[in-house]
Amino acid sequence: MAQSTDSRSLLDTTQLRTDVPMRLAVVYTEWNEQIVVALLDGCTAVCDELQAVITHKLAVPGSFELPFACNQLWRQTEGQPGAPEAIIAFGAVIRGGTPHFDYVCQAVTQGVTALNTVLPVPVIFGVLTLDNEAQAWERLGGTHAHKGREAAITALKMIRFSRELKIEN
User: Fold this and answer.
1) For residues 99 and 112, what is the distance between their CA atoms, to the nearest angstrom?
2) Among this protein's residues, is 100 annotated catalytic?
3) Which distant-in-sequence residues (6+ apart) come within 8 Å of 92 by Cβ?
4) What span, in angstroms and rounded, lies between the C-alpha atoms of 62 and 68?
5) Residue 115: strand, helix, or coil
6) Least confident stretch, 1-5, 74-78, 93-97, 114-118
7) Average pLDDT of the segment spanning 41-70
8) Do 147 and 128 form a contact (C-beta atoms < 8 A)?
9) Which residues of 141-162 are buried (b: 16+ CB within 10 A; e: fewer)?
10) Who has greater pLDDT, 5 or 158?
11) CA 120 to CA 84: how far, in whole Å?
């Protein structure tokens, strides 16, 4: 299984410090709260380290609601000073004994993908799709690094990417 540590550049934050703080928003689920709080903690730590600003932290009931909430967050903040330059969607879906897991994972994945084609800011997929809870902790500081930190780094790199495109135009 590939790990984030297999690609050192993925976790490189050396070019993410800027004079103008980067702004991101987080939409997260209430479902699987302990796991999601750990994702948020990792994200917040990266933002603190790099002086990035989390403009909004908004909770929704579950992962299925994440695409709607990310879209509404953008629509409500678009054009305002301090609007987020990226949005992270955090959640955790754990496989149960019914096909519900497959439907929720497919819906949230397709929803976030669709947002990335229509919104002018990137929406980062920070939803853990897991067979069991132990896999979550492997991805929150265990053998698979910390997915909350990785999502924040990804968001900041995409903000840098967007800013660079604006400068070049």
Assistant:
1) 20
2) yes
3) 29, 31, 32, 35, 36, 39, 63, 127, 128, 130, 136
4) 11
5) helix
6) 1-5
7) 98
8) yes
9) eeebbbbbbbbbbbbbbbbbee
10) 158
11) 11
Eight-class DSSP state of 16: -
Strands 123-130 and 140-142: unpaired
Any idea which residue has 């999601």 for tokens?
Answer: 36
Dist. CA 145–CA 151, nearest whole Å: 11
The Cα–Cα gap between 65 and 104 comes to 10
Q: Which tokens belong to 55?
A: 């403009």
Biggest CA pair distance of the chain: 52
* Alpha helical stretches, state H, 8-65: 33-49
CB-side neighbour CA atoms (13 Å) of 16: 24
CA 168/CA 146 separation, integer angstroms: 33
140-142 and 145-146 beta bridge pairing: antiparallel
Q: 3-class SS at 142? A: strand
Copy the structure tokens of residue 46.
């990266």
Give the pLDDT mean for 83-94.
98
The pTM for the full model equals 0.93
